[in-house]
Amino acid sequence: MRIKTFALTLMALAIGSVAMAQGDIDQRVEELLQKMTLEEKIGQMNQLSGGYQFTEMIREGNVGSILNIVDPVEINAVQRAAVENSRLGIPLLVSRDVIHGFRTIFPIPLGMAATFDPDIVEQGARIAAIEATASGVRWTFSPMLDIARDPRWGRVAEGSGEDTYLDVQMGVAMVKGYQGEDFSDPTSMAACIKHFVGYGAAEGGRDYNTTMISERALRNVYFPAFKACVDAGALTLMTSFNDVDGLPSTGNDWLLRDILREEWGFDGMVVTDWNSSGEMIAHGFAEDLKHATELSINAGVDMDMMSWGFIQHTKSLIEEGKLSMETIDNAVRNILKLKFRLGLFENPYVDVTLARKVAYAPEHLAAAKQCAIESAVLIQNNNNVLPLAKGSTVLVTGPMADAPYDQLGTWAFDGEEQYTVTPLKALAAHFNVINAPTLSYSRDTDTSSFKAAQKAAKKADAIVVCVGEEAILSGEAHSLSNLNLQGAQSQLIAAMRATGKPVVVVVIAGRPLTIERDLAKCDAMLYSFHPGTMGGEALADLIAGEAVPSGKLPMTFLRDAGQAPFYYNHPMTGRPNNGTETLLHDIPLKAGQTSLGCTSYYLDTGYGPLFPFGYGLSYTTFEYANVNLDKYEHNKSDYIHIDFDLTNTGDREATEVVQIYVRDLVGSVVRPVKELKGFMRVTLKPGETKHLMYDLPVSDLAFWNRDMEYVVESGEFQLWVAGDSASGEPINFKVL
Ligand code: NOJ
Description:
Blueprint: H1 6-14, H2 22-35, H3 38-44, E1 46-49, H4 55-59, E2 65-67, H5 72-85, E3 93-96, H6 109-114, H7 118-133, E4 139-140, H8 164-179, E5 192-196, H9 215-222, H10 224-231, E6 236-239, E7 243-244, E8 247-248, H11 253-263, E9 269-271, H12 279-282, H13 289-299, E10 304-305, H14 309-319, H15 325-341, H16 354-358, H17 362-375, E11 377-381, E12 393-397, H18 423-427, E13 432-435, H19 450-456, E14 462-468, H20 489-497, E15 503-509, H21 516-519, E16 524-529, H22 535-544, E17 622-629, E18 633-634, E19 639-648, E20 654-664, E21 675-684, E22 689-697, E23 703-704, E24 710-711, E25 715-722, E26 731-735
Parallel strand pairs: 1-2, 1-10, 2-3, 3-4, 5-6, 6-9, 12-13, 12-14, 14-15, 15-16, 18-26
Antiparallel strand pairs: 7-8, 11-16, 17-19, 19-22, 20-21, 20-25, 23-24, 25-26
Helix pairs in contact: 2-15, 3-14, 7-8, 7-17, 8-10, 13-14, 17-22
């Protein structure tokens, strides 16, 4: 871990950690279990949300966990009810959606993924844990590992995008950051990997919608990040709302028992999503709440979030023989084990003065700024209009220029907008800023202020237009079918273009929007996924050239929403792109019906996306040369030694995200056209060349094949070393 914070030191001094061996924990769990009544066991399986009157229930031992309270005084009060007033004094697990920061808000997870920097992501999660645990929150519902290939789905904001390898790296970094090195350290916050599984594949990008994912696709695409996080020690897992092939996850024993427990050896705790047990009634999978409870617990769920079914029906289900005592005991074991692991029995309370002391610590803000810098993607920079000359006069306008709440993004419950630095505020440190307020929010259609802004622009050397999405337009339940800029934002860009001044567009949004028409109306575009508390300073540094963009797209950018889902690593088709596209207007009138020669593309938008996965420009240029593999033929136990030269051919120090892609040319099942297998961030001085090396284990080429075995299949492969998923020349190699 790169940072050792003030907060960490304070906490360690204040309380001290109480690491306990697993054997001791198991013994204490068994001793406690012996003393518990059935009602107390069922109570541990019940999680309630703040806002309900639950103190009496806590005293009676009917609550195991609380979500959504964050005031340390209130948290200590409910803990006191559990520890001092319930019969067995079992502490509560206090939980919260701490998704991209607690007080200091980092970029949304999709933005964090754009950094391709697991270190900064781990650091962000550590900081979130330090700030949240100081309030008494010891369990977060993060990371979200759902692969998302359809930007219409609002929750793309919460994950790492479309690629499995990137998802693994980011997920593991977050788990490590939240949990730290010692679970019982008071700053350790249990991670919850979610949503198991396939939630991001919602048909049509419509939230909560059904999914149809084959077992092979689950294993090759959707499971790996969950498995990697289980291996990294993730303490909890959340089921998902959706069904996969007709089975809602919360009632799917194949997922929760056969895969998670038996195959992967998960020894943590499983919680439902909010009422996802009860929602199996609406799915038409359970008759009523009692039946839903039976299905969930038998499937392998340990704790119920807010369906109230477990607390109401478990006892009678046992009496009727539909649930066994052994199943209940195992669920309660998982819950108690977690509480012992976190040291809650020893340290149930927080020092109520700590939370405010650690929130927004200078080093937290510095890390959030660095993450926001690394997450911004330079999409276009015609004639090197960026960076703008420092000290020049810049007109700043647009609905996201001074939107402190909205730039925090979705699931930023505890970030306080008064601490947010907006672009408008931060640009003033570098430029002579003319503030020209236009649209007051992203959906605003009132263009009456455009004329005044155009007039004011006469005095400016350049214009910065900040557009995008309000925080509420992405995230849960915020799917869209049209991904163009909302309201009159495109008209605003066009109006600024009409002034003849250089136009820099900054997009601050929760998802990849379809920005092709806007690109034609501006000189430069910086794309910043809701960048959090320090987003303004980060963007201002980038615009002024104090920092150089290095972010890369974690999702394919579409020309039109009708192309969704579109992802770079799709399976090879029988009619791949052959470089010829007959577009809509090239088709002669009364053309005869033919399909010969046709390939997989759209008549209107053509074959390609707007920008490929991994794309992102810099203020400099990079040249890849002399890419070599140590040999052509490799054994399955080998490492492929890749070496290459990377040169910074421009005049600024900058960082490049080097990406390594592989294609398995022939498989026992159809394989992806390309797959990311590695990446590295490399910083080079102007003119500098570095000779770089990367060792790729051949075992990383394994996949679930036709016989549903995880193997590397012998044969020919191709490998690319490049700055995005569509560049570079392939090198062939063979696996024996
Ligand atoms: C529902 C969301 O799907 C889940 O991600 C979240 O953690 C829970 N609500 C708790 O707020």
